[in-house]
Specification:
- This protein is an alpha+beta fold and about 425 residues long.
- The protein has two domains: about 35-190 and about 295-380, f41 fragment of flagellin, N-terminal domain (Up-down Bundle); about 195-295.
- It has nine helices and 13 strands.
- Helix 2 runs antiparallel to helix 7 (about 320-380).
- The radius of gyration is 42 Å and the shape is elongated.
Length: about 425
Amino acid sequence: MLRIATSQIYQQSAKNMGERQVALVKVQQQMATGKRLLTNADDPVGSARLLSLNEEVSRYDQYQRNTDLANGRLNVEETALEGIGEVLQNARELIVQANNAPLNDNDRRDIATQIRQLHGQLLGLANTQDGNGEYLFAGFKSHTQPFVLDGNNQAIYQGDQGQRLIKAGPSFDVPVSDSGAEIFQGAMNGNGRFQVAATPTNTGNGAIDVGNVTDPTAFQSNFSKPPYTIDFIVDNSTTPPTTTFNIKGSDSNSPPGFTNPQPYKDGQAISFAGLQTAITGTPANGDTFTIQPATHQDLFATLDKLATALETGADQPPANTAQLNQAMANGLAELDQGLDHLTGIRAKIGARMNALDDQQNTNADFAVHLKQTISDIGDLDYAEAATRLSQETLILQAAQQSFIKIQGLSLFNYMR
């Protein structure tokens, strides 16, 4: 016969009530916190999944902070580039004004002073710093001033070619800077494809137009022996004097399809190797002009050359006027190329900012999805919890009442 001691009955009843009390407290804690999983032991697999999901949410939160940082830096750069564009446009307007015939040399020197001031403004913009004191246009060397002037007023770039990137998404690194070398020394000179020049020793008043490419395919194929030289021959034995010109490449041969010599006519188009230009004025015997491939220009040097040309003036002899006109024409072309180059960079920045906006929306959508998954796994179903709370309360009460009844039972109760 199995005998159960009174102490065992007490212990078992106390254990049951304790378990029910723990279960009830757990439901109460779940309802207080709104969390289904209070400890990893509640659901080891679910807890591991929640840990991974929360880490992923943290990563996406960092992506969103990165996009804010990237947008802020790109906005600062865009503002600086807008200022640079205004400087170049103001310089262009001054050069157009300087080409006005009624102006004298004093007027042009006044314009040169204004261009020098624009040169200083450009230097200040090139050394723009962000809110953290870092230089925008120094590449990776963001704590080094990118541009300084040497003793000849030429800008020296002290940065590097680096382009800083910010991670704005799992597979999206966005550039948030452009090197000063690219912005201020990346534009082409001339018309972007080739450049022209009048030899400084010319004695006539001829000037060569900046020209343009009329046949890109022919230019690519036939512009192969630069620099090309246009040489003028003036025969004074005729009345009136006869002026002709020859065009020769670096191999001293005529370009393909061009026969030397050619009669000269003021302003008439000169075409060869897929390009076209024109010479105006009256070149003297022995005057030469050159045509060679465009190269990268330095915007600081462009402004400095224009100011120097205006300061030199256009006093007699006539060649001075021709040299000034040539400098102004070439300078205008370089400013136009600089403005076009700047427009291209600003377009890239606009595209980056648009991409950041799209990525930010994508990040936000995915973060919402992650948080919903976290909620599905870890959040409490209040209706189900309320049912369990009621159930556990009833079970605990029943256990307590049973214990009270069992506690009152003894053999003496049956003997009475």
